[in-house]
Write a structure and sequence with these properties.
Mean pLDDT: 75
Number of strands: 0
Structural class: mainly alpha
Helix content: over 70%
Number of domains: 2
Radius of gyration: 32 Å
Distance between the termini: 79 Å
Number of helices: 13
Largest sheet: none
């Protein structure tokens, strides 16, 4: 079985063993969905949204909450990577005979499965509250796919921060610092044309803005191929940091292990005779460090003559 598949199931089982992390990343979007959809429900009856083709504020808000769910899961992906670094699991994987890219792919694919399930849960909750996908099943699948791809890109960024820092606190702060502005500097709560000019400028460089826009169109208006092309361009920007940085930090554990073995003193240097239980030298060989002084031929002859005289 390929290493990527094995690591994917390993990370999925790890998520299942800690279900509160998965539930917590879905609970907040669901709470926000209920609160904001009821608070701003009257906007659907105004020309503000009616003129753009949106008939329900719940349907307008739903894609943004799906994006929020995957952004929180992406943050947890970075924290899980830090956990593997601290426990030494990452070093064990790196010295094993597998491709290093499989380590990251196993993590991100497991996150993709989790994000797909979480997006489906939020979408089902919105449907039960009264929202309808005007584009049918194709629009539903397209919305789930686009949200999941955004989550994969965000998880790759979170893993990059985790690998570079190796610090859980820094990864969490950076993840929250990036996730919340990505949500609020987008059309998640209000169409961009009714927001300040500087927000519209920032939203052009925000990948989440394009995914949310596509989801809102699929929910209420219909597919817009121009918006789809802009979304794909946003994915390209999102994946750029992970594509340019593929090296893992902290040196090479295999090389460090070889260097430690090379500097470790041999048994002969410690004074153990060749062939003993504590020696690493074969019995038939002399230790390289146990050199004897050279014997002069004349001295050997004189010692032999002296021995015969005594006899």
């Amino acid at each position: 079985m390929p290493a990527t598949v094995v690591l994917t199931f390993r990370n999925l089982f790890k998520n299942v063993r800690t279900p509160m992390l998965v539930i917590a990343s879905v609970a907040q979007p669901l709470v926000w969905l209920v609160m904001f959809s009821q608070t701003f429900r009257g906007l659907a009856d105004t020309p503000l949204l009616r003129g753009l083709g949106y008939r329900s504020y719940l349907a307008f808000l739903l894609p943004g909450m799906m994006v929020l769910a995957v952004l929180f899961t992406a943050l947890q992906s970075g924290l899980a990577m830090v956990s593997d670094i601290d426990s030494g699991m990452l070093d064990k994987l790196r010295v094993s005979p597998i491709n290093r890219l499989s380590i990251l792919l196993g993590r991100v694919l497991a996150d993709a499965v989790t994000m797909l399930a979480q997006g489906a849960v939020v979408l089902v909750a919105g449907t039960l509250m009264g929202a309808r996908v005007e584009t049918g099943w194709l629009g539903t699948f397209g919305m789930l796919a686009s949200v999941t791809l955004l989550g994969v890109a965000w998880a790759s960024l979170a893993n990059l921060i985790a690998l570079r820092s190796g610090n859980a606190e820094l990864t969490m702060v950076a993840g929250i610092f990036l996730a919340l502005p990505a949500l609020f500097l987008s059309p998640a709560f209000l169409p961009l044309r009714f927001q300040p000019d500087w927000v519209q400028t920032v939203a052009r460089f925000n990948p989440a803005s394009y995914v949310i826009g596509v989801g809102q169109a699929l929910m209420s208006i219909g597919n817009d191929w121009g918006q789809d092309a802009r979304m794909l361009a946003g994915y390209r920007r999102a994946f750029a940091p992970a594509r340019n940085r593929r090296r893992l930090p902290r040196g090479d554990p295999l090389k460090e292990s070889i260097d430690r073995d090379a500097t470790f003193p041999t048994s002969s240097a410690l004074g153990y005779p060749a062939g003993s239980a504590l020696s690493t030298t074969p019995p038939g060989e002399r230790a390289a460090t146990a050199e004897e002084p050279p014997v002069v031929a004349g001295a050997a002859v004189r010692r032999g003559v002296g021995a015969q005289t005594e006899l």
